């Protein structure tokens, strides 16, 4: 189920009947493990994306700074840096606010 788009595909990949997968989906222990593994996969993907950011930004910055690049490349690179930079700022701000609210609710 973690790597397949449908229950049918997951059943086929596991060599199980669809009804078996559906029964598993009713089991709280199965669901808890499934959710734990989904969270783990998301965390791994997030870590990989974070690791790719500095070289990607350096590459875009190189395009921006390269006078030999066409203006369209300069604009596209600058737009990408600005768009993703703004998203990162917003996400960081949201995370800080959420942490502050969580800390207040614990008191």
User: Tally the helices: what do you get?
Assistant: 4
- Uncertain parts: none
Tell me the radius of gyration: 22 Å
The chain-level structural class is mainly alpha
Which descriptor suits the 3D outline? flat
Reported for the largest beta sheet, the result is: none
Kindly report the average pLDDT value.
91
Instruction: State the total count of DSSP E strands.
Output: 0
The helical percent reads over 70%
Number of domains: 1
Give the ordered list of helices and strands: HHHH
Q: What percent strand?
A: under 5%
Any key phrases for this structure?
107 residues; mainly alpha; 4 helices; 0% strand
Q: How would you explain this protein's 3D organization?
A:
The protein has one domain (7-106). The protein is 83% helix and 0% strand. It is built from 4 helices and no strands. Helix 1 (7-14) packs across helix 2 (18-24) and helix 3 crosses helix 4.
């Amino acid at each position: 189920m973690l790597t397949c788009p449908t229950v049918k595909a997951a059943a086929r990949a596991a060599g199980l009947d669809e009804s078996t997968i559906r029964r598993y989906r009713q089991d709280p222990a199965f669901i808890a493990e499934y959710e734990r593994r989904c969270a783990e996969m998301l965390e791994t993907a997030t870590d990989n994306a974070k690791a790719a950011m500095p070289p990607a930004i350096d590459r875009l910055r190189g395009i921006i700074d390269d006078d030999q690049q066409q203006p369209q490349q300069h604009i596209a690179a600058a737009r990408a840096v600005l768009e993703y930079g703004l998203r990162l700022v917003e996400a960081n701000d949201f995370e800080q606010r959420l942490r502050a609210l969580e800390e207040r609710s614990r008191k």
